[in-house]
C-alpha cells in the first residue's frame, strides 16, 4: 500500500535538488523523508489515529477478546508489530518511500509494503483506520525543510 502525494511544490523542489547536485543530496533528502515520515507515523499510532483527524474505530468485542488471549493487551493496529514497524521505523525494508519523475512532474509515494495495510487505510473489508493521514504541516516538514537547510549552507 502506498499513498501518493502529488504537489506542485514537488516540481519546484525537484528543480532545486537538481541545482544542488544529485547523488548525495538526493540520498540526504530521501533519508530525511524516511525519518520524518516515521516520526509522523509514530505519533499517528500513539494517538490511535487521532493525530490524523479521526481516532481509529474500536475493535469489535469478540475480536478484541481473541486478540487479548493470543497476544496480550496490545493497542489497535498492533498484533505482531510488523505493520507498525513498516511505518514507524525509518530503517524498515517494508517502508515505502519512492521519489518518481513522471510526465506530470515529480511525486513522492509513502506507505507500507505490508499487504493488509491497504485494507485498513481504505476500509475495504475491515473498519477504516487510516494509518497515513498527512497534514499540510507534515508535507511542509517532509518536503521543504531539507531544501531550506541546503540552500542556507
Q: What is the overall number of helices?
A: 7
Q: What is the number of strand segments?
A: 3
Helix coverage percent of residues? 40-55%
Q: Write down the overall mean pLDDT.
A: 83
Low-confidence stretches: 5-10
Main sheet attributes: strand count, strand direction, barrel closure: 3 strands, antiparallel
Helix and strand element order: EHHHHEEHHH
Instruction: Give the helix/strand class.
Output: alpha+beta
Radius of gyration: 17 Å
The span between the termini is: 36 Å
What overall geometry do the principal axes of the alpha carbons give? elongated
How is this structure best described in words?
The chain has helices at residues 8-20, 23-46, 61-71, 82-88, 117-122, 136-143, 145-152; strands at residues 2-5, 95-102, 105-112. Helix 2 (23-46) packs antiparallel against helix 6. Helices cover 50% and strands 13% of the residues. With 153 residues, the chain is an alpha+beta fold. The longest helix is centred in the N-terminal third of the chain and has 24 residues, at 23-46. It is built from 7 helices and 3 strands; from the N terminus they run E-H-H-H-H-E-E-H-H-H.
Amino acid at each position: 500500500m502506498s499513498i501518493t502525494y502529488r504537489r506542485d511544490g514537488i516540481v519546484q523542489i525537484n528543480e532545486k535538488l537538481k541545482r544542488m547536485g544529485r547523488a548525495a543530496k538526493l540520498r540526504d533528502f530521501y533519508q530525511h523523508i524516511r525519518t520524518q515520515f516515521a516520526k509522523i507515523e509514530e505519533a499517528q499510532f500513539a494517538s490511535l489515529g487521532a493525530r490524523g483527524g479521526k481516532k481509529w474505530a474500536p475493535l469489535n468485542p469478540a475480536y478484541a477478546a481473541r486478540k487479548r488471549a493470543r497476544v496480550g493487551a496490545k493497542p489497535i493496529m498492533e498484533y505482531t508489530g510488523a505493520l507498525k514497524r513498516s511505518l514507524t521505523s525509518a530503517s524498515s525494508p517494508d517502508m515505502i518511500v519512492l521519489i518518481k519523475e513522471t510526465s506530470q512532474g515529480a511525486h513522492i509515494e509513502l506507505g507500507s509494503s505490508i499487504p493488509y495495510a491497504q485494507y485498513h487505510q481504505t476500509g475495504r473489508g475491515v473498519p477504516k483506520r487510516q494509518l497515513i493521514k498527512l497534514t499540510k504541516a507534515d508535507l511542509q516538514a517532509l518536503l521543504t525543510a531539507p531544501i531550506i537547510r541546503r540552500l542556507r549552507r
